[in-house]
Amino acid sequence: xxxxxxxxxxxxxxxxxxxxxxxxxxxxxxxxxxxxxxxxxxxxxxxxxxxxxxxxxxxxxxxxxxxxxxxxxxxxxxxxxxxxxxxxxxxxxxxxxxxxxxxxxxxxxxxxxxxxxxxxxxxxxxxxxxxxxxxxxxxxxxxxxxxxxxxxxxxxxxxxxxxxxxxxxxxxxxxxxxxxxxxxxxxxxxxxxxxxxxxxxxxxxxxxxxxxxxxxxxxxxxxxxxxxxxxxxxxxxxxxxxxxxxxxxxxxxxxxxxxxxxxxxxxxxxxxxxxxxxxxxxxxxxxxxxxxxxxxxxxxxxxxxxxxxxxxxxxxxxxxxxxxxxxxxxxxxxxxxxxxxxxxxxxxxxxxxxxxxxxxxxxxxxxxxxxxxxxxxxxxxxxxxxxxxxxxxxxxxxxxxxxxxxx
Amino acid sequence: xxxxxxxxxxxxxxxxxxxxxxxxxxxxxxxxxxxxxxxxxxxxxxxxxxxxxxxxxxxxxxxxxxxxxxxxxxxxxxxxxxxxxxxxxxxxxxxxxxxxxxxxxxxxxxxxxxx
Lengths: 407, 115
Description:
The complex is a heterodimer.
Chain A: H1 4-7, E1 11-17, H2 22-26, E2 44-46, E3 52-54, H3 73-81, H4 97-102, H5 108-111, H6 124-132, E4 134-136, H7 147-156, H8 177-183, E5 188-192, H9 202-206, E6 213-215, H10 216-224, E7 231-234, E8 241-242, E9 248-249, H11 260-275, H12 278-281, E10 284-290, H13 314-317, E11 334-337, E12 345-347, H14 362-371, H15 380-383, E13 404-406
Parallel strand pairs in A: 1-7, 1-10, 4-12, 5-6, 5-7
Antiparallel strand pairs in A: 2-3, 4-11, 8-9, 10-11
Chain B: E1 8-10, H1 27-43, H2 59-73, H3 88-114
Helix pairs in contact in B: 1-2
């Protein structure tokens, strides 16, 4: 019999943020919570002078990474392999982050900022959620590359062979998780923030399947009105723009150089929308996850993974070697929230021989397995992906044991 | 929050200085615009001109283009116009006038009835 947490589960909500690594956001938690695979403080990278630069708890909310750190395929290859060109047997060492950032004209001192991380007290929302519910030590971006191809894994379980930001078209028979759900009589939606921010799923989904979209204010309304779909995917605000009535809407995606505090507030608002509606709270699991590391330092070497049957040619990867989708990208923060999760749950990753590896194909994988059971038209990588709902238990935490944010 | 909760954590406000719609667009937004531009080409009617996306440099300009394109594909996502509450003084005056008015109406009704 499944645990009560799964038995009572009616809604899965995924909030995907932008471009921050695990160590940058959560690495500082290890001092107080030793099970979290974060930073000892001794991790370092060489700069362009060969000086070893340690990680520093001096990350800023804004203005520190105003040169958007490189996170395209060749840049991430440099970050992971320290500059060793692709060849059989090369070893990943996570020693190329400063080198990569320095190539963007930052100057030697500014290039050290890529080693910065937030002390936990600076991120009250993410810290609270990570320590109150479940944090994944081993959730990696699906590709050592940028946003669009990584987000594709969250929607389709594959990027159809793409490793870059260019548009791509769905290849039959793979369908998005939303289309699978709707065609099987279930409900699913992508909520973008507003029309000025819009979605990153334009060519395949917004154009062809507009009915699966809603705005963030509609998400809030759906939570209040008990009309939340079974599966919801939320996109933050991607740009600063004027709001209604002369207000100002800030980007909440946390993409450098957008303000990290505003992203915290957005996560808190999304959590509150579920948390403050008792029936919804007890029947919903919410995953907060980042699409990729954004070029920012993480100390864990991305592991190998099951290939998804695709290959990106050398001219697409920009590294003079093809990529067979057989290893993952850099580690990202991932937190699962539910009142059925015991406080302080840590899902072990690569640091534990019994650890489990997660990546974005786990999102359609878990949602499909939970709502649709046997569904065959997907990659074997997605089919074999780990279930991110595993931390849900039999025990419902009392209402006064779960936090609410005052935003 | 209507209900009282035992465990409440305060979330700091983002400083107003964080807002900058004149910020140059990132590679992410640049590609988002390029993807919409492909759709714009498909939707173009005779006599219409394609937006020159090379002129989009700032987040404000990007947001205007994204709004235009998203509204075409997903008009359901438009924000409903918000009712703006009048200033408190005006509300007080209106309330007072309303209650005064109610009283008058009652008395008039009463007079009418008595007629």
